[in-house]
Amino acid sequence: MTSHSGILHEYTFKKVAFQFDLNPNPTKILVFIGGLTDGLLTVPYVPKLAQRLKDELTWTTFQIQFTSSFNNWGISNLTNDINDIEKLIKYLREKYSPSKIVIMGHSTGSQDVIHYLLNKQTKTPVDAGIMQASVSDRSSFNINATEKGRELNEIAIKLCEEGRQDELLSYEHMKMSWNTPITAFRWNSLMNKGGQDDYFSDDLTMEELKFSEIQVPFLMVFSGSDEFIPKSVDKNKLLAKWKENSNKEFWSKHSGLIPGASHNVKEINLQDSLCSMVINFIKEFNL
């Protein structure tokens, strides 16, 4: 446990972002987005990443806390997430007029990143995106592996078909989603093929993948020993498939695996590898 010096910004009503230094006028900014159950300072490598970006590139790192932070993810969705992210981006652009803003997501934060980059309604663009631990929630939860899971899944699907997607599901559903209250929409989004969150599943075809639509530089950072990826998935083949689906102009040559790294790279000795991939990506595209 430790403390961190920085600045807490209220970027919109009752929502905050933490700046990992005291720079009064940051000119280049990385916005970090956590995954399911994350909030400020819950992803272990972020302070080190912020320090190295500051020391080596004079970049400033911000971490967003938004509607779906901590245990609110079950009653939110990617659309709400990118609306909050855009409010922070607008705040930062109006306050500092930075020359560059890059968004970086961890886990389901990676879904937020690709959703933001592809969303045509987003009026506040960013210069690049980074996706770390971009796992398939559908594969990780694997809700259809049991008869009970299939029964609960059918209930959620039926509610969505009836236009009742915002209804909270039962206690039984909650137990299967990390004891988190969850709506029919978010359940369907996470658990079923073609759901809003289903960007990274290994069984998606080249036509179903969306990497080719990304029109800014992006980096994929995969954890070699990610505990949320089924052992049946060949991570190197999956990365190669994503690369093949991408525009070569924007896919970073520094994308790849961190051998031995867990989902959130909690291994201190491996965090520098992640940081170096991010720094080399920024240098690669002169961001």
From TrEMBL:
Any Pfam family the entry gives: DUF1749
Stored InterPro entries: AB_hydrolase_fold (IPR029058), SidJ (IPR013744)
Protein name as it appears in the record: Related to UPF0613 protein PB24D3.06c
Organism: Saccharomycodes ludwigii
